[in-house]
């Protein structure tokens, strides 16, 4: 394991721990993994079931890009996790779900939570939290969420969690560094997903399907065909009347009829 990746038996939240470490100046690539968490969380503050046997990892990221473009980090990290699992021969049935989940067989395999902050010197950084169900599949289904699935449900033989941790940790850092370099070589007004847009769309599920966009409160915002996600990370839905675009903070998508 890399010396910058620390593994502990249990903590409240690896993201919380590294947000504090980042504020104290922890460098790019500082990683913290836990066997279990007592206060794991996902997007919009949803509880993340963090029982032992799964991959629970957070990484401090300090990419040299405009902090306004940190919104691309979830997609970049999702692609990196997918690539790491693919390297292990585990990704045959795995897709990405906008904006930050890994799914398989219509169920949630993992999630990514990116939180941006500034350290005590005012410098921007982000913490990328990654949770992947490996040997334990949570039974609780959050309101409006997908039922869970684990890597062990998809494959007869799954590598040890520590091996997967090492692969995912390095894949995410490498992917973020490459993304930052490519983004800085583009025009200043390029969207944060521009360097990975084609690859991201290629792994995204429900493209071309009928979906419903719902607000964080569960209200229906639109229904129509999920056409694409643009370079700025907005889901584009073709309704009967027009093309609607939604930022990830505004909406979640579900297939029609589910």
From TrEMBL:
Organism domain of life: Bacteria
The keyword Ligase is assigned to this record: yes
EC numbers for this chain: 6.3.4.15
Pfam families tied to this protein: BPL_C, BPL_LplA_LipB
Main EC class the enzyme belongs to: ligase
Keyword terms, alphabetized: Biotin, Ligase
Official protein name in the record: biotin--[biotin carboxyl-carrier protein] ligase
UniProt source species: Collinsella aerofaciens
């Amino acid at each position: 394991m890399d010396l910058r990746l620390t593994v502990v038996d249990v903590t409240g939240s690896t993201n919380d721990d590294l947000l504090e470490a980042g504020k104290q100046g922890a460098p790019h690539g500082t990683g913290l993994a836990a066997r279990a968490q007592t206060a794991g969380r996902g997007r919009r503050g949803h509880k993340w079931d963090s029982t032992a046997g799964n991959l629970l990892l957070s990484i401090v990221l300090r990419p040299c890009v405009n902090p306004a473009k940190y919104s691309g980090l979830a997609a970049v990290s999702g692609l990196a996790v997918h690539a790491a699992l693919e390297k292990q021969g585990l990704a045959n049935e795995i897709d990405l779900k906008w904006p930050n989940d890994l799914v398989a067989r219509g169920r949630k395999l993992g999630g990514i939570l990116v939180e941006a902050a500034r350290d005590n010197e005012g410098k921007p950084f982000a913490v990328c939290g990654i949770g992947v169900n490996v040997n334990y599949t949570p039974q609780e289904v959050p309101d409006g969420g997908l039922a869970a699935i684990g890597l062990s449900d998809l494959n007869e033989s799954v590598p040890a969690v520590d091996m997967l941790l090492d692969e995912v940790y390095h894949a995410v850092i490498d992917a973020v560094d490459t993304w930052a370099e490519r983004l800085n070589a583009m025009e200043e007004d390029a969207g944060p997903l521009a360097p990975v847009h084609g690859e991201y769309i290629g792994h995204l599920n429900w493209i071309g399907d009928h979906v419903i966009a719902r607000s964080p409160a569960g209200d229906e915002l639109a229904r129509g065909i999920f056409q694409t996600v643009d370079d700025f990370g907005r889901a584009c839905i073709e309704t009967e009347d027009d093309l609607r675009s939604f930022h990830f903070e505004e909406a979640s998508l579900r297939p029609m009829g589910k």
